[in-house]
Amino acid sequence: MGGCVSSSSSSTCSSRSNGEKVSHECLGISMFGRKRIRRSLSDPAAALQHLSSIPNRIFTNGKSRTSCIFTQQGRKGINQDAMIVWEDFMAEDVTFCGVFDGHGPHGHLVARKVRDALPLKLKALLQSFESNRNENPQVEAVDPDKDQVMSDKVDTQWREAFLQSYKAMDKELRSQPNLDCFCSGSTAVTLIKQGSNLYMGYIGDSRAILASKDENDSMVAVQLTVDLKPDLPKEAERIKQCKGRVFALQDEPEVHRVWLPYDNAPGLAMARAFGDFCVKEYGVISMPEFSHRVLTERDQFIVLASDGVWDVLSNEEVVDIVSSAPTRSSAARILVDSAALEWKTKYPTSKMDDCAVVCLFLDGHMDMESDNEEQCFSSATLQRNHSDNAAESDDGHSSEPSLQRNFTVRSGEENDAYKRVVAEAEANQETVVTEDQKWSGLEGVTRVNSLVQLPRFSEERPGP
């Protein structure tokens, strides 16, 4: 998770308010096929008041017709991850999925706000485009050239919908009177599956992968998104042109962070995010990367997850864990438990990050048998997540983030004997760190209630 690190004795970061063709399913009279679009709750502001009544929308540990989702609090305080699966999003056979990784003092609130509001904004824009298409009907394509023109237009509309909705989301966060996003923010990896078409928009370092079968019928992992970190050449160049700085701290040389021009703060470990307005003028943006992919019959499932998973598991390991799960409905939980075990094995001195996982199965169904609830979520696991579910009111009073460091680690050497023993992970589950626990030096750096004052690091402060 990419949080903020304040290293200045007088920090200014104080608390303040693929190019494939579109399939014929989305050509012709409708972006969403010929099935009738659900027009209810088209106003995002009004729909926010009725989220609990929207059918086929899940955002807590559980399963739907085609997916399972699971999140677990790490050892850094309140769970700042959020997730959602919304089936029948615009029409039948249209599904929205998203994972959001918050950071900063109020990151948990930002992630949940984005989880709730962003899908509604995207839905309203897509409905607006569809309405315009219906008011200005065109002759359906009859030859390959017209097919390409139509597909390009539809693809452009999807791209514009993602870009505009992300922009509107960030603008809303800036204007929220009761939500301080100055040094708090969230990543987002979102997708809409419409038939065989997959449309994706994302910012930050949460990731989506696809599990597919190759010509030998072996399962392979395909990374669908790019981790938008500050050390990517394109991202670093933009930040530097905006007078922001990108460098890594001495004790974590592989984790590049974004810093203000004349202050060693906030130390954001990602190049794009919602919120984080203290660095929005210095190159950090909320504009998403967009991509479109046409799925094939070889594609099996999609996994979206926060970086708490990707920091310790490779794409291939994630595909192997999910495909080997005894039931589909338990796949997300088993993946999170496997990540928890790897955190202890690979980084025994680091505090485990929050993990959130969405597993979307592309054949359109879950387990054929009726799963036992205990088979999906053990009582011990539900107990670990109770504190997160209790904070869903978004009022910020049920629990507060504790003073601690936010590690964003890179994968080290793979263990020779890779273990995925869920029982061991649960048996060895350590007590979550409480707020009154104290650490020395750099152990108390990020996700703070009020930004701490620390001595400067080795890099000299640039002149005026």
UniProtKB/TrEMBL annotation:
Molecular functions (GO terms): metal ion binding; protein serine/threonine phosphatase activity
EC code(s) of this entry: 3.1.3.16
Domain PPM-type phosphatase positions: 66-362
Superkingdom, taxonomy of origin: Eukaryota
Listed GO biological process terms: regulation of intracellular signal transduction
Cofactor: Mg(2+); Mn(2+)
SUPFAM superfamilies: PP2C-like
Comp. bias (Basic and acidic residues): 387-398
Keywords: Hydrolase, Magnesium, Manganese, Metal-binding, Protein phosphatase
Ranges for region Disordered: 387-410
Keyword Manganese attached: yes
Pfam families associated with the record: PP2C
Catalytic activity: O-phospho-L-threonyl-[protein] + H2O = L-threonyl-[protein] + phosphate; O-phospho-L-seryl-[protein] + H2O = L-seryl-[protein] + phosphate
Regions of compositional bias (Polar residues) in chain numbering: 399-409
Entry-linked InterPro entries: PP2C, PPM-type-like_dom_sf, PPM-type_phosphatase-like_dom
Family: Belongs to the PP2C family.
Protein name: protein-serine/threonine phosphatase
